[in-house]
Known about the structure:
This protein is mainly alpha-helical. It has 7 helices and 3 strands; from the N terminus they run αβααββαααα. Strands 1-3-2 form a 3-stranded antiparallel sheet. α1 (2-12) crosses α2 (17-27), α1 (2-12) packs across α4 (83-93) and α6 packs antiparallel against α7 (153-189). It comes from Geodermatophilus siccatus.
Amino acid sequence: xxxxxxxxxxxxxxxxxxxxRKQLAQVLGGLRSISYGSLYPALKRLHAAGYVTTDEPDPRxxxxxxxxxxxxxxxxVVYTITAExxxxxxxxxxxxxxxxxxxxxxxxVRLAFFRHTAADVRLRILEGRRRxxxxxxxxxxxxxxxxxxxxxxxTLELQRHGLDSVDRExxxxxxxxxxxxxxxxxxxxxxxxxxxPLAPPGETPPQP
Length: 208
């Protein structure tokens, strides 16, 4: 998940480690702290695989105080995605199996890069996530029905809160699916390929 997110961010623009760490915290949910101890080993693996390159640091630029030294205490190493890295990223965003939606954390990362994902893949991921969450909802309902009489009121409220959260996610996913279907119909009406990824702001999707 971390390496996928790194490739996605570098696909948008080159970054140095400090900026990449800040952007990753936003992509991964804001509440998850990304340490340099996990970031730099991931970057090292991506570099060894040929997916990213590094630029020579500017010796006049200072690293933040909490950043570990890479080439000394001065300078920021800039990471850039390679052509092989872009191919790997597009390979990953094309995956629509259970690995893309069963885990809520990975689903959230995939959603953050949906504009790079083909429309039919986006729809399969959203529908898969909805099925997953609906199964979770049914399990929570069954558990609540079996244990209702044995729970104190605080535990009961906690379980109800969890069920309400899952209900909201199912409704949210249904709304996203409806928007995807509407967008697909609009693109067909406009003569565009409904399977094209979303164009970045200010750009037009490629025409067939």
